[in-house]
Design goal:
alpha/beta, four-stranded antiparallel sheet, 2 domains, TIM Barrel
Amino acid sequence: MIIFFEKDIDIEDALDKIIYISEINFSHFNFGENYKGIYISEDIDKEFILKNIDGIREMVQVNKPYKFVSREFKKEDTIVHIGNVKIGGEHFETIGGPCSFENEDGFMEIAKNLKEFGVKIVRGGAFKPRTSPYFFQGIGKDALKIMRRITLELDLKLVSEIVSTEDIEVFNEYVDIFQVGARNMQNFELLKKLGKCNKPILLKRGFSATIEEFLLSAEYIVSGGNMNVILCERGIRTFEKSTRNTLDISAVPVIKKLSHLPIIVDPSHASGRFDLVESLALASVSAGCDGIMVEVHNDPENALSDGCQSLKFKRFYNMNKKIHKIRKSLF
């Protein structure tokens, strides 16, 4: 059971009164004026609570295992703010950039071109968890510093993948959006700590995760107090070998019904092939996603990671024009 309090209620007084008159166990939440109250996991006497506690706006029974992520908790779409950039509701963004930061000149060239195409958020990996320990693992903190300087110069937002709780302080300093990769979707200690951060979190679906498991991972973050979560469908592992993963386009409308959180799609990791990225991106936009994140590189043939799924500038530009046409026809 979730109890919402009125905007002007003194929540500390209300909590003190609940503790005084009842022995129920509850957890306190506060996601702004419209969403402050308590969550109670046990059966309660509604009439008793309503009679003895002032300032209750609404009492809602949430039946899903994910409570704060559920549409039952919040009916309207959550809009995640990244400075003056918004994702969710009617706000759509295309995110682009290299899988990994390789050098300053290359990242500057990519970022400048993306800005000219209207992109407001660029991606760039500094710490790269790879399947093999012999693959390129990223440059680390130095890459974050350079990418931050470039994105500030170009007035762009930066998203980069965090792989360890030890790096939270560094990411707070240099990154606008923390990305949690598929391999860390169920790194619960990391998720719990990100729930205490003020920065938006981009949470990717795990290789073999069900939609419920995906949303429960988001619940770890949101239940910690950070509702600024952007979900990302990036393909799941199936028996099919012609693509890197299998893009679950149905996850977009399903999650839209189940959750208020925005969901974007990564067709680069889903396909593993640059020639399939556009088709999957356009299909995802048609399905109602809130954004697309693709890998873009100035020299994909010589990229240190994921060059085979990275778009060149012209292909990205043409894809983005088609995305805008589809969006215009839908809204």
